[in-house]
Amino acid sequence: MEFNFALHGQENFRLLELPPELVQLLESEQPPHLSLKSYVQDPSSSDDATSGHAVLCTDDKTFQIRQRQSSNSVFIIKPYLEKQANLPSSKLATSLLAIAQCRNTLELHVHDSAPSLILERLIPVFDADTEKSSLSDANTNINSKLAIFKDIPASKAECEAAWQEICAFELDGIPWRPDATTLKRTWEILQSSAATHDISLDQPFVMMPLEKEMEEDGGILPIFYAVIANLSTESPTAIEHGDCKHMVPSFKSCANVDSY
After folding, report:
1. Dihedral of alpha carbons 132, 133, 139, 143, sign
2. Residue-wise over 93-110: b if at least 16 C-beta within 10 A, else e?
3. How many other CB atoms sit within 10 Å of the CB of residue 126?
4. CA of residue 19 relative to chain centroid, distance
5. Measuring CA to CA, which residue among 36, 38, 60 is closest to residue 50?
6. Do residues 226 and 236 touch, judged by C-beta distance below 8 A?
7. What φ, ψ does residue 60 adopt, rounded to 5°?
8. Helix (H) or strand (E) holding 187
9. What is the pTM of this model?
C-alpha cells in the first residue's frame, strides 16, 4: 500500500493524550461535560493561581494542559483512492495520504487549582456599614456568580467549594464576600440565637428560628446562609414537619465553629 503526502492543503492538528480515568468517563453512559478554560494573568500579581495556563475541566476535576515535543514523526492519515496506469480505468488503487504532521502533542495532568485566590480578586468586599444602594450603584459592572465561574480555570465543583470557603454570597444578583467585621457580627447573632433557642450547633438543627432572629437583629440572610454553608459538612438537608419544610445543616466540627 502506497503512502503519499498531500502537497497542498496540509491541515493543522494537535493531538491530545487523555488519561485513563478521563477516557473511562467519556466512554460511560453519562459522559461529563468538558470545558476549556484559562485566566488572564494580572500583571501586578506573581501568584501561580493566575499563571494563564489552559485547563480542561470536567464537572469536578481540573486537568492542566501541557505541550510535549516528540522526536518521532506522527502523521494524520486518511484513505486515498487514486487511478493508476497499470489498472483498468474502472478500478481505483487504495493508498494512504498524510494530511498533517503533528510535531507536538498535548498531555493532561490533574491540577490542584486554587480558585479561592482568584475569587477573592474578582469579588468585592461587602462592608455592612456601607449603604446598600451605594453598593449596587458602585458595582453594576460586576458579573454574576455563574459568569465569574466561567472565567475561573477550575471545575464547577471546585469553584463552588471555593465560593463556600470565602463565605461568598449574592445580594440583588451581585456577588460579595463579607469583611471580617460582617462575619464576626453574623457569627455573634448566630451564637446568641442558638443559645436563646437552646440549639446545639455541633448537632443538626432547624434553621428557621435562627433565620427569624437574624432578620430581627439586623443581620443579612445571604451572609447567614454563606456562614452555614461554610461550616456545614454538606448542603443542608430538607425535612418535612407538618405543612412546612425546614432546612437542617450539620456543622463539620466544633474546632471549625470556634474559628469564627
Report:
1. positive
2. eeeebbebebeebbebee
3. 24
4. 20
5. 38
6. no
7. -135, 5
8. helix 180-196
9. 0.74
- How far apart, in whole angstroms, are the C-alpha atoms of residue 106 and residue 141? 36
Taking each helix axis from N to C end, the angle separating 115-122 and 156-165, rounded to the nearest 10 degrees, works out to 60
The string over 137-159, giving b where at least 16 C-beta atoms fall within 10 Å of a residue's C-beta and e elsewhere, is eebeebeebeebbeebbbbbebb
Q: Which amino acid is at 95?
A: S
Please give the C-alpha separations between residue 212 and each of 91, 216, 257, in angstroms, as whole numbers: 85, 6, 21
Among the residue ranges 30-44, 102-116, 141-155, the one predicted with the least confidence is 30-44
Structure-block grid coordinates of residue 191: 451564637
Q: What is the pLDDT of residue 63?
A: 93
* Residue among 108, 227, 207, 209 nearest 165 (CA): 227
Q: Which amino acid is at 110?
A: V
- pLDDT tens digits, residue range 122-180? 999 998 665 554 555 555 567 889 999 988 999 999 999 999 999 999 988 889 999 99
CB within 8 A of 132, min separation 6: which ones?
171
pLDDT tens digit string along 212-252? 888 888 888 999 999 988 887 665 554 444 444 444 555 55
**pLDDT tens figures, 75-86:** 888 887 765 555
Whether the CB-CB separation of 249 and 232 falls below 8 Å is answered with: yes
Given the DSSP bridges, would you call strands 237-241 and 244-248 parallel, antiparallel or unpaired? Answer: antiparallel
Query: What does DSSP assign to residue 240?
Result: E
Is there a contact between 235 and 229 (Cβ–Cβ < 8 Å)?
yes
